[in-house]
Amino acid sequence: MDLNINKTPHVLTDPAPVNKSRLGSSFPSGRFMMSSRKKIPKLDDVRSNGWLDAMISSSPPRKRLVKDFNIEIAPEDDFAQRAWMLEYPSAITSFGHIAAQAKNKKIAIFLDYDGTLSPIVDDPDRATISDAMRAAVKNVAKYFPTAIISGRSRDKVYELVGLTELYYAGSHGMDIMTPVNPNGSSEDLNCIKSTDQQGKEVNLFQPAKEFIPVIEEVYNSLVEITKCIKGAKVENHKFCASVHYRNVDEKDWPIVAQRVHDHLKQYPRLRLTHGRKVLEVRPVIEWNKGKAVEFLLDSLGLSKNDDFLPIFIGDDKTDEDAFKVLRKGNRGFGILVSSVPKESNAFYSLRDPSEVKKFLKTLVKWGKMEKNSTRF
Ligand SMILES: O=P(O)(O)OC[C@H]1O[C@H](O[C@H]2O[C@H](CO)[C@@H](O)[C@H](O)[C@H]2O)[C@H](O)[C@@H](O)[C@@H]1O
């Protein structure tokens, strides 16, 4: 993690999950008031279906920050941390093992954006990628096919990363741009021809095309129904929408949950998933980051033989779909970015984006060595 004392925005760790008993005493049912002092509907729905619990526990425990210096103090439960690290060893210290698995194979790299390439910050619009991280990703792409698969819209994540040598998938993989003529297949009804930012012909795979108008509609109404909740922010990612509650006072989280939940009842073809202090509104279609990895491997011609070792690096719940796909087929592996113990389908871990950068640099060194050694 980049710990720069004077730098804004501050890099954040997420608040501790709150247990049910605490929730119960802090938020007795039926006593939630808006700042306008209007009574809001009872919160039985979001409680009974576990939404609120999921919101509260959707982020790792808070680590104590030394105020003014933004320095993290390690959690007391060092033992749990060490035990967890045995199960999910560091991808840096285990690099030798990873290299052995990759011997005589070609690696393909899949990267999440927020929390992986860019540290988690308060304002999603200020989640930039550092020049050093951008350079590391650019170098990786010289040796290995590299794709970014983000929950953000494809345009937005391209604008943030700004590297033309990568493949981009936005909206949790519901918007994928691939070259027109790779070795792979792309004959799918959801594929259309388009042009990229450089005017090159490309394929666009958009399995949730028909949802664009409804997402626009629901985005507008979510903005409306959350506008009086201080700190709430809604983003439109074209094929999905995000409702952020990171900057909402914790006592108002149930209001966010209830309003979004009630509103979505009118949209049976939309569903809700949880991310890091964010509720993600998505089409009900069977598509996720795992499917996007499979699609990319296929359309880039990387899935036809066992010669490829796909590696996915991500920090969030939505990245678990990709970890699962790689684990299930025993094809490659996931690396979870987390500084606290979390259950995951990944094989390895990295603590934060600064370790991701270190790992990518190590990968480049190894790639260079491999390339040189195969020359002879
Ligand atoms: O799949 P990702 O690239 O990781 O995108 C997931 C969500 O990331 C962004 O939100 C998260 O990062 C923000 C900036 O650090 C943070 O403020 C927020 O609390 C996090 O949830 C993005 O804004 C969302 O739209 C993405 O869905």
TrEMBL record:
Residues 1-24 are annotated as: Disordered. Its cofactor is a divalent metal cation. One of its GO terms (molecular function) is trehalose-phosphatase activity. Keywords: Hydrolase, Stress response. It catalyses: alpha,alpha-trehalose 6-phosphate + H2O = alpha,alpha-trehalose + phosphate. Pathway: Glycan biosynthesis; trehalose biosynthesis. It comes from the Eukaryota. Its EC number is 3.1.3.12. It is an enzyme of class 3 (hydrolase). It holds the Pfam family Trehalose_PPase. InterPro entries: HAD-like_sf, HAD-SF_hydro_IIB, HAD_sf, OTSB-like, Trehalose_PPase. Removes the phosphate from trehalose 6-phosphate to produce free trehalose. Trehalose accumulation in plant may improve abiotic stress tolerance. PANTHER family: TREHALOSE 6-PHOSPHATE PHOSPHATASE, TREHALOSE-PHOSPHATE PHOSPHATASE F-RELATED. Belongs to the trehalose phosphatase family. This is Trehalose 6-phosphate phosphatase. It comes from Cardamine amara subsp. amara.
